[in-house]
Amino acid sequence: MAALLVPLTASLAGNVPRAPAQRVLPATSFAVLPGPDPPAPEPTSVPVAPAPPLAAPARLMIPSLNLDAQVEAIGVDSSGAMDAPHNIWDVGWYRGGPSPGAPGDAVIDGHLGLPGWPLVFSGLARVAIGDDVVVVLADGTRNRFNVTSLQSWPATSHPTGLFSADGEPRLSLITCTGAYERASQTYADRLIVEASYVGPA
Fold first, then answer.
1. Confidence bin at 194 (pLDDT 50/70/90)
2. Of 25, 111, 120, 149, whose CA is between 20 and 30 Å from 39?
């Protein structure tokens, strides 16, 4: 997967400190691969109306980290990898997948930062199994998730189930981890924190 380089000299919202022009941020995510086709519904004599789609996420909160971040809706870059949020203090939700709380894997990524320069997800590796994650949707709905696993993956891997559009509602939070490679200005691995849906918060 080609590394996604995000210049830190881009215009940013709010009073965000600007880094030296030569600094760039590494990619935070993986290539977006289509999941398996959902099983065909069994015939029924009574038509069932599909549930209305959930609103897009607006804020992500992790109380154990004192994290409360705005959420950007993002797509993919030219290499087919999930894009990164444009404001370095925001997190990015993959808008091609489910909203958090809907069936499937809702994916949110965020920047770790550079050595000595932490950003929004710099503390993500400190979450513990059982910690709460709350996502506030644009309509004010608050959905609560519970952390079930933390796992590091090589940046070029394709974790099973990531970006899946069906199955139990769950949430995947992604950031960089592992060794920082100064030559390529990226990290070797990606941290995925998985959380299962608990219910309304």
1. very high
2. 149
d(C-alpha 193, C-alpha 156), whole Å: 17
pLDDT computed for residue 35 by the predictor:
53
Q: Residue 141 corresponds to which amino acid?
A: T
Q: Which of 31, 161, 30, 29 is nearest to 98 (CA)?
A: 161
Q: Which residue has the tokens 């550079």?
A: 114
Structure token digits, residue 108: 């949110």
Highest mean pLDDT among 21-25, 36-40, 136-140, 152-156: 136-140
> Residue 65 in 3-state DSSP?
helix
Assess contact for 145 and 198: CB atoms under 8 A. yes
pTM for the model: 0.80
Q: Which two tokens stand for residue 55?
A: 């609103």
CATH number belonging to the domain at 25-30+54-200, selected among 3.40.50.150, 2.130.10.120, 2.40.260.10, 3.40.50.970: 2.40.260.10
Q: How far apart are CA 85 and CA 70, in angstroms?
A: 10
What does the pLDDT read at residue 184? Answer: 79
Return the domain boundaries, the chain: 25-30+54-200
